[in-house]
């Protein structure tokens, strides 16, 4: 994804920037730049540390008061569940161990409160920022937000939260607190330089129904207050100072999208059944508990991937068995009567681990099931937590980063031990709980026939499968243009995996990003995929496409695509198909602004 501005000389000074669509919808309005000047912290020696401590306490109290207000606004507007995001931040502000350390340091070193607060918070933020994982980055953002709030209150500066008119707010980084606080105004949309679709601020924007585009890198450089702006939250695009023609086109498209959205959401509960009677399952990928209320309205047939590693970061340590069991129970109850696929901790790689081992090639290192097999007690605790949750509804377990069938056999042995230990304690669980494996390493794909003998399902992780097949680091922007899910090698590997699973009589799912890409839906259906798992917001679109497709024709199309030898050719054929059969979906989710 590039945020290189595209100037259109024929249409005046219009600038198009591309980022990530974080909350659907189109907004057209005037820019209001929310300035977040970098707070400059000077190191000073103070004469009276006691007075400094008093000043700090006042700033903490004021910050707590502000955040408490935001928490209550969130509770009123979007409900108790989602407002919980702010409880985590309130906990940061009331952490006695942390602040005792800060106060002790002020007294001992006689340094100013700003300096000590800033350095102590930064230590925590630094480690989290190093990760490319969205959840860790977001946790870093929450801690930074608390730090900035205290620093602002130490400077006794006012918080800007009220403004006139109906603007689109443009800022460097939108925090969850910004998303809620600013929504008390008639704001039309949010635009930010940083952030991803799964950040808390993006989730809150979706819940508040405010369109948002994030991760634009340099949006704030190109806009000033009062500029006309178009925000397309479906495709992650903004247009600054649009021409007359662009404005007209987007005004029409806005109407069109709103109609389509209402239509798709009203049909979301319908099953994903093709016109000739093949039923597939459309499930949700979940990272945060705040996403659970989205399941039902978006018609999810369960949770196809519950990523558990975010729990570690949310609680700053590995939650114990009972804490995990309680969280899993909430997911199971939200998805009921459908199943939840819990993936065991996928830590390592770009996903930080508390032990923080520095590895030269973390993606090729101690990650996922490898790490968990070396920490059998950790894995057994997690198994026991999932088994406990299975007493409340249907659960499945899935292993990430599997390279060989031996790993599956060993993990299954540990699962059997976990069951035995619960039996001994008389704890109830679902004895028929299914186990599956993620196919995301080429060796596992090639061995999928053998692996299928030991499990009840496979789930293809295209994010890692693409990375490892093409030797393209999924987090390295230098090679981002080479990360190509539609590469014939990736497609042939997917087809081989589906066939291997089917030959063994088990179902094959996909939970990588490709499963949520409408361009790929008919092809994956035609390859025989049984289950699609994607972000909730995409599920109604996937269902619509599948419900309007003939399975036999999809199979024929897939066969043709598998014979093609370039990604461009494949994508062109799929785009032509989507445009011909689902014009409105094509124009809202795939096509470029200038098409
Ligand atoms: C994948 O690799 O496709 C996947 C779904 O797992 P993650 O993105 O969490 O690595
Ligand atoms: Mg993966």
Can you tell me about this structure?
The chain has 595 residues and is an alpha/beta fold. It folds into three domains: 11-37 and 160-263, Glucose Oxidase, domain 1; 49-154, Enzyme I, Chain A, domain 2; 273-594, Alpha-Beta Barrel (TIM Barrel). 49% of the residues lie in helices and 13% in strands. The chain contains 23 helices and 18 strands. Bound molecules: phosphoenolpyruvate and magnesium ion.
Q: What are the salient characteristics of this protein?
A:
single chain; 595 residues; alpha/beta; Glucose Oxidase, domain 1; Enzyme I, Chain A, domain 2; TIM Barrel; 3 domains; 9-stranded mixed beta sheet; 8-stranded parallel beta barrel; 23 helices; 18 strands; globular; binds phosphoenolpyruvate; binds magnesium ion
Q: What is the distance, rounded to the nearest whole angstrom, between the alpha carbons of the first and last residues?
A: 18 Å
Number of strands: 18
CATH H-level superfamily of the largest domain: Phosphoenolpyruvate-binding domains
Any guess at the CATH architecture of the largest domain? Alpha-Beta Barrel
Strand order of the largest sheet: 1-2-9-8-4-5-6-7-3
Task: Write a concise synopsis of the structure shown.
With 595 residues, the chain is α/β, with parallel strands linked by helices. α7 links the parallel β6 (189-192) and β7. α19 packs across α22.
Question: Which helices and strands occur, and which strands form pairs?
Answer:
Elements: E1 6-7, E2 15-18, E3 20-23, E4 26-33, H1 49-78, H2 80-93, H3 96-109, H4 113-129, H5 134-154, E5 168-171, H6 176-182, E6 189-192, H7 200-208, E7 212-214, H8 219-222, E8 228-232, E9 237-240, H9 244-266, E10 272-273, E11 279-286, E12 303-307, H10 310-314, H11 321-335, E13 340-343, H12 369-374, H13 376-389, E14 395-399, H14 405-425, E15 434-439, H15 442-446, H16 448-452, E16 457-460, H17 462-470, H18 488-503, E17 507-510, H19 518-527, E18 531-534, H20 539-547, H21 551-563, H22 567-581, H23 583-590
Parallel strand pairs: 4-5, 5-6, 6-7, 11-12, 11-18, 12-13, 13-14, 14-15, 15-16, 16-17, 17-18
Antiparallel strand pairs: 1-2, 2-9, 3-7, 4-8, 8-9, 10-11
Helix pairs in contact: 1-2, 1-5, 2-5, 3-4, 4-5, 6-7, 11-13, 13-14, 19-20, 19-21, 19-22, 22-23
């Amino acid at each position: 994804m590039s945020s290189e501005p595209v100037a259109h000389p024929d249409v005046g000074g219009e600038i198009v920037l591309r980022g990530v669509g974080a909350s659907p919808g189109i907004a057209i309005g005037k820019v209001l730049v929310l300035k977040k000047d970098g707070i400059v912290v000077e190191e000073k020696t103070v004469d009276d540390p006691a007075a400094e401590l008093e000043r700090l306490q006042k700033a903490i109290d004021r910050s707590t008061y502000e955040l408490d207000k935001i928490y209550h606004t969130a509770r009123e507007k979007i409900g108790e569940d989602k407002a919980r995001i702010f409880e985590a931040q309130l906990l940061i502000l009331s952490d006695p161990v942390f602040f005792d350390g800060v106060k002790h340091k002020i007294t001992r070193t006689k340094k100013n409160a700003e300096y000590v607060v800033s350095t102590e918070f930064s230590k925590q933020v630094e480690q989290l920022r190093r990760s490319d994982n969205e959840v860790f980055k977001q946790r870093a953002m929450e801690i930074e937000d608390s730090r900035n709030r205290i620093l602002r209150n130490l400077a006794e500066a006012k918080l800007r939260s009220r403004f006139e008119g109906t603007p689109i707010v443009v800022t460097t980084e939108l925090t969850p607190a910004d998303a809620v606080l600013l929504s008390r105004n008639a704001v039309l949309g949010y635009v930010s330089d940083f952030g991803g679709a799964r950040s808390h601020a993006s989730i809150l924007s979706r819940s508040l129904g405010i369109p948002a585009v994030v991760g634009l890198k340099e949006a704030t450089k190109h806009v000033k207050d009062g500029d006309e702006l178009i925000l397309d939250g479906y495709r992650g695009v903004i247009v600054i100072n649009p021409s007359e023609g662009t404005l007209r086109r987007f005004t029409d498209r806005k109407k069109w999208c709103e109609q389509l959205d209402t239509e798709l959401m009203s049909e979301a509960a319908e099953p994903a059944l093709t016109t000739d009677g093949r039923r597939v399952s459309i499930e949700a990928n979940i990272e945060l508990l705040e996403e659970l209320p989205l399941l039902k309205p978006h018609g999810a047939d369960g949770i196809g991937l519950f990523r558990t590693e975010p729990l570690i970061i949310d609680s700053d340590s590995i939650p114990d068995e009972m804490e995990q069991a309680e969280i899993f129970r909430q997911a199971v109850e939200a998805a009921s009567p459908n199943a939840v696929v819990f993936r065991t901790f996928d830590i390592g790689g770009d996903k930080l681990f508390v032990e923080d081992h520095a590895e030269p090639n973390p993606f090729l290192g101690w990650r996922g099931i490898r790490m968990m097999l070396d920490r059998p007690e950790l894995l057994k605790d997690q198994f026991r937590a999932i088994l406990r949750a299975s007493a409340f509804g249907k659960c499945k377990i899935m292993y990430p980063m599997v390279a060989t069938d031996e790993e599956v056999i060993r993990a299954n042995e540990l699962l059997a031990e976990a069951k035995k230990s619960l039996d001994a304690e008389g704890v109830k669980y679902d004895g028929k709980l299914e186990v599956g494996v993620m196919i995301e390493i080429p060796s596992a794909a090639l061995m999928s026939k053998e692996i299928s003998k030991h499990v009840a399902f496979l789930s293809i992780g295209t994010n890692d499968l693409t990375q490892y097949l093409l030797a393209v680091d999924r987090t390295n922007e230098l090679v981002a243009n080479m990360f190509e899910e539609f590469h014939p090698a990736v497609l042939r590997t997917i087809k081989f995996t589906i066939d291997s699973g089917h030959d063994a009589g088990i179902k094959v799912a996909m939970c990588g990003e490709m499963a949520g890409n409408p361009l790929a839906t008919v092809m994956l259906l035609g390859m025989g995929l049984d289950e699609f798992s994607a972000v909730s917001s995409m599920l109604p679109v996937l269902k619509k496409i599948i419900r309007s497709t003939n399975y036999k024709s999809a199979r024929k199309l897939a066969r043709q695509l598998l014979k093609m030898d370039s990604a461009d050719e494949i994508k062109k054929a799929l785009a032509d198909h989507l445009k011909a059969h689902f014009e409105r979906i094509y124009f809202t989710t795939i096509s470029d602004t200038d098409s």
